């Protein structure tokens, strides 16, 4: 059982939070609901208390004898704000504590996840964009809102994700330590923290997810990456004892707990974030799916569809090759530089009439200049968004290729094991 604080802010989607609460209760978790005062206009206290089986308060001046605004945050294993309005995210980004919910946010050391819900104009407003960036830079996982029907006749980005999707997104935060009593948990945590692994004392930078290149304020050029393989790699590296710097592009799931998190949206933003994370690290694993091209021009207003005008023509330009650039920078800096001695690339390939997936992968390994390349075949029903993967790990020094298949966790363990072997003293170049 985990202790969850469910914050509910004032939006029409508050009724869906009741369904989310039921999912948590059915999974055996304890849930304390903290609604904002305005949200009670949508769903009342009686509903929250009946569904949670717990007392519900909104003010720091209630249950003062328990120091409620501190206690709830200290005891939580997860704080989830769903729905998260523009107002609550703005107050959280500013570090305000003017009600029980924002006070709890400042008092907690638990992972914080926010599921936004608002009109498209509010979601895309520069103030909201800046607030989301601030929250993400502090380690808050802000789930991308859905696109669809909003309040009234409006439709667009800002729709509250379905409760089942939010439940799945926070599942990684609720895993582990099942069956341990509260008295046993500290000893289990200490044992995990002090256990020596093959990457103990090493720092590994990992990129994950897919980049998005905006066409206009509504549309973007992207890919099918879910980030699942990168998340699995981060978990495997943590289990192996490494310090993990995790650079997240757009992902379907939150980053795993325990990583040093930074975020990026476009390929050029990812390049800056990855370069910063890689400096001083022992290993860089580039598992993010980076868009090869971006629109040559960004249109400030939505591109309109009209029978009176010709179909728009979108010109694409190349994005920077992050992997090849880092390898080249490392060579240029030489021993005076601090880029990793071991760089691992990922190649999502499709075969064709001219060559096979592995042949294209081998050519890419030679072209990129990295030490390892993880090659996997992709397609509409292969790899992207699934829980299974099949890869071949190629080595620049001629070491025999390694094949791994099965769950993405199993593939990640094979990749991290190969990384550990490359870093072993006998393998040092």
Kindly list the characteristics that best describe this protein.
429 residues; 22% strand; alpha/beta; globular; eight-stranded mixed beta sheet; Rossmann fold; single chain; five-stranded parallel beta sheet
Structure explained in plain terms:
By secondary structure, this protein is α/β, with parallel strands linked by helices. It has two domains: 172 residues, Rossmann fold (3-Layer(aba) Sandwich), CATH 3.40.50; 231 residues, Rossmann fold (3-Layer(aba) Sandwich). The chain is 33% helix and 22% strand. It has 14 helices and 19 strands. It has an eight-stranded mixed sheet, sandwiched between helices. It has a five-stranded parallel sheet with strand order 2-1-3-4-5, sandwiched between helices. Helix 1 links the parallel strand 1 and strand 2. Helix 1 runs parallel beside helix 2, helix 1 packs across helix 8 and helix 10 packs across helix 14. The chain is globular. About 5% of the residues have low confidence.
In terms of topology, how is this protein built?
Blueprint: E1 3-8, H1 14-26, E2 30-35, H2 45-52, H3 68-75, E3 78-84, H4 86-93, H5 100-107, E4 112-116, H6 120-123, H7 126-137, E5 141-142, E6 146-149, E7 155-159, H8 163-170, H9 185-194, E8 203-208, E9 213-214, E10 220-221, H10 228-239, E11 243-248, E12 260-263, H11 267-278, E13 283-286, E14 293-295, E15 316-318, H12 322-333, E16 342-349, H13 357-368, E17 372-377, E18 388-395, E19 402-407, H14 408-423
Parallel strand pairs: 1-2, 1-3, 3-4, 4-5, 8-11, 8-13, 11-12, 13-16, 16-17
Antiparallel strand pairs: 6-7, 9-10, 14-15, 17-18, 18-19
Helix pairs in contact: 1-2, 1-8, 3-5, 4-7, 10-14
């Amino acid at each position: 059982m985990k202790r969850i604080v469910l914050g509910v802010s004032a939006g029409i989607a508050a009724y869906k939070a009741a369904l989310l609460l039921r999912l948590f209760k059915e999974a055996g978790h304890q849930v304390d609901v903290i609604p904002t005062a305005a949200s009670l206009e949508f769903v009342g206290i009686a509903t929250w208390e009946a569904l949670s089986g717990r007392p519900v308060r909104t003010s720091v001046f209630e249950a003062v004898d328990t120091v409620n605004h501190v206690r709830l945050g200290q005891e939580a294993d997860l704080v989830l704000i769903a729905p998260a309005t523009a107002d609550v995210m703005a107050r959280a980004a500013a570090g305000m504590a003017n009600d029980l919910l924002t006070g709890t946010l400042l008092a907690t050391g638990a992972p914080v996840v926010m599921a936004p819900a608002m009109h498209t104009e509010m979601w895309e407003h520069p103030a909201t964009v800046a607030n989301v960036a601030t929250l993400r830079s502090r380690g808050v996982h802000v789930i991308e809102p859905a696109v669809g029907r909003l309040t009234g006749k409006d439709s667009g980005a800002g729709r509250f994700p379905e409760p089942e999707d939010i439940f799945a997104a926070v599942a990684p935060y609720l895993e582990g330590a099942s069956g341990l009593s509260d008295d046993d948990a500290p000893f289990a945590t200490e044992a995990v923290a002090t256990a020596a692994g093959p990457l103990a004392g090493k720092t590994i930078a990992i990129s994950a997810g897919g980049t998005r290149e905006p066409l206009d304020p509504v549309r973007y050029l992207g890919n099918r990456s879910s980030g699942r393989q990168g998340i699995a790699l981060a978990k495997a590296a943590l289990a192996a004892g490494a310090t993990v710097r995790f650079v997240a592009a757009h992902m379907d799931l939150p980053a795993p707990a325990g990583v040093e998190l930074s975020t990026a949206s476009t390929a050029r933003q990812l390049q800056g974030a990855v370069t910063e994370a890689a400096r001083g690290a022992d290993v860089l694993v580039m598992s993010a799916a980076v868009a090869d091209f971006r629109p040559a021009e960004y249109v400030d207003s939505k591109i309109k569809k009209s029978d009176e005008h010709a179909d728009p023509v979108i010109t694409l330009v190349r994005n920077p090759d992050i992997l090849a650039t880092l390898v080249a920078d490392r060579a240029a800096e030489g021993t005076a530089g601090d880029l990793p001695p071991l760089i691992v690339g990922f190649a999502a390939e499709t075969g064709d009439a001219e060559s096979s997936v592995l042949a294209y992968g081998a050519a890419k390994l030679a072209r990129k200049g990295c030490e390892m390349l993880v090659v996997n075949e992709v397609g509409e029903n292969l790899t992207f968004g699934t829980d299974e993967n099949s890869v071949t790990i190629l080595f620049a020094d001629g070491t025999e290729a390694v094949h791994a298949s099965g769950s993405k966790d199993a593939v990640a363990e094979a990749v991290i094991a190969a990384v550990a072997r490359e870093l072993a003293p006998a393998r040092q170049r």
